[in-house]
């Protein structure tokens, strides 16, 4: 199957959309399919390492469309209008088009797929309406505009895949049809309790403090500032892993915290496993991959009781869910778990057991089934349309010999239908 993946973000960017697209493309190659990734180009000079997967290390083709940085958040790139998108889709001749978190580049691709009559799967991953409020883009007006764009793009798709139950409910409530749930996988070999590094733990918490960590982008919508009260608890050391525009303000607000910047690969896995407690503060998560990575690392979780974390965190089983946007609630939950090593161990083990079956291979196969179903439905509609067209008898038939007239009004068989 030939699949075109049009995504708003891709490595070298580090975020949930980029990571899930990379994993999906990797799985498609390993299953013998032919993906093409179309994405905004990164900043000039950024290193874009080639991606190769499969038994023969087949290269993953990537088309990068000209882009500009998002105002106030230059790490995010916005695709400019370009003929490269249409040219890439036409040249690849995909059976299915996958729109990953479509908004700008994805919206243009949606219009093209309608024109080209290509079956499309839209994957909802980013709460853009919530982001509009977080960045004060007209507040309620900004949210309404974002939902109008989301509806327009996703209604054009044959199927929308949502990463969690709350996300699916939001989409349905705002008029998006044909919504299914497609969650995310986690690499439970890379993220594993055995990667805990006691020397790293001692260096970050030299006084034997309970090490409480956040991993992710440092941006307004993530509300990492909600950790400030917890960072002042006695016997607690907060470590922040990630970067973004909010970093300077957060360092000023939490002078006792340790800021490690961005970490990736084996180093990130070692950091996760060396934590005693993981805290996620963002109230706008449609899923939250870092929660799964913490759970796979055997680390208990504190997260807001809203959005994607509701599907991931078992309250008082794998961690604690707290009121969103409430710094006091975060601090109380951290204090409760910091006081009980036994409870942390219990929640951490339960979390690890819960996510080990959520492999990228399993969710990748689910994605392929969605593609196959949408493609089958599209082909059936094409056959039905061709059959209906073929069986229409002209109002004023053109005179012709007897035998051809009989043949002309017979419906074509399924095998004879035009593609």
From TrEMBL:
<dbReference type="Pfam" id="PF13439">
    <property type="entry name" value="Glyco_transf_4"/>
</dbReference>
<dbReference type="GO" id="GO:1901137">
    <property type="term" value="P:carbohydrate derivative biosynthetic process"/>
</dbReference>
<dbReference type="InterPro" id="IPR028098">
    <property type="entry name" value="Glyco_trans_4-like_N"/>
</dbReference>
<dbReference type="InterPro" id="IPR050194">
    <property type="entry name" value="Glycosyltransferase_grp1"/>
</dbReference>
<protein>
    <submittedName>
        <fullName>Phosphatidylinositol alpha 1,6-mannosyltransferase</fullName>
    </submittedName>
</protein>
<keyword id="KW-0328">Glycosyltransferase</keyword>
<feature type="domain" description="Glycosyltransferase subfamily 4-like N-terminal">
    <location>
        <begin position="14"/>
        <end position="188"/>
    </location>
</feature>
<dbReference type="GO" id="GO:0016758">
    <property type="term" value="F:hexosyltransferase activity"/>
</dbReference>
<feature type="domain" description="Glycosyl transferase family 1">
    <location>
        <begin position="201"/>
        <end position="352"/>
    </location>
</feature>
<dbReference type="Pfam" id="PF00534">
    <property type="entry name" value="Glycos_transf_1"/>
</dbReference>
<dbReference type="InterPro" id="IPR001296">
    <property type="entry name" value="Glyco_trans_1"/>
</dbReference>
<keyword id="KW-0808">Transferase</keyword>
């Amino acid at each position: 199957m030939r699949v075109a993946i049009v995504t708003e973000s891709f490595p070298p960017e580090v975020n949930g959309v980029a990571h899930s697209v990379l994993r999906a493309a990797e799985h498609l190659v390993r299953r013998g399919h032919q993906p093409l990734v179309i994405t905004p180009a990164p900043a000039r000079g950024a290193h874009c390492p080639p991606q190769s997967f499969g038994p023969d290390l087949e290269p993953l083709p990537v088309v990068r469309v000209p882009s500009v940085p998002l105002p106030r958040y230059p790490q995010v790139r916005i695709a400019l209008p370009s003929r490269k998108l249409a040219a890439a889709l036409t040249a690849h001749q995909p059976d299915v088009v996958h729109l990953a978190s479509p908004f700008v580049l994805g919206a243009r691709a949606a219009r093209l797929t309608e024109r080209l009559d290509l079956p499309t799967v839209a994957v909802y991953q980013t709460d853009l309406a919530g982001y509009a409020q977080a960045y004060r883009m007209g507040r309620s007006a900004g949210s309404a505009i974002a939902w109008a764009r989301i509806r327009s793009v996703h209604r054009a798709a044959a199927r929308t895949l949502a990463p969690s139950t709350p996300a699916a409910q939001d989409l349905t409530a705002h008029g998006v049809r044909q919504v299914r749930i497609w969650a995310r996988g986690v690499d439970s070999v890379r993220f594993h309790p055995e990667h805990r590094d006691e020397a790293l733990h001692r260096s970050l918490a030299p006084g034997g403090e309970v090490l409480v960590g956040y991993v992710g982008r440092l941006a307004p919508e993530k509300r990492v500032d909600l950790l400030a009260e917890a960072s002042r608890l006695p016997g607690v050391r907060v470590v922040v892993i990630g970067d973004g525009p909010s970093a300077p303000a957060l360092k000023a607000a939490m002078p006792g915290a340790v800021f490690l910047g961005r970490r990736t690969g084996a180093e990130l896995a070692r950091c996760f496993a060396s934590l005693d407690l993981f805290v996620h503060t963002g109230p706008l998560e449609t899923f939250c991959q870092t929660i799964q990575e913490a759970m796979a690392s055997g680390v208990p979780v504190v997260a807001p009781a809203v959005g994607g974390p509701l599907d991931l965190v078992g309250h008082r089983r794998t961690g604690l869910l707290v009121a969103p946007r409430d710094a006091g609630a975060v601090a109380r939950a951290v204090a409760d778990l910091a006081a009980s090593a036994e409870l942390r161990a219990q929640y951490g083990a339960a979390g690890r057991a819960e996510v080990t079956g959520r492999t990228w291979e399993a969710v990748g196969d689910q994605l392929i089934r969605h593609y196959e179903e949408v493609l089958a439905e599209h082909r059936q509609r094409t056959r039905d349309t061709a059959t209906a067209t073929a069986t229409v008898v002209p109002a004023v038939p053109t005179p012709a010999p007897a035998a051809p007239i009989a043949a002309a009004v017979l419906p074509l068989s399924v095998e004879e239908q035009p593609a």
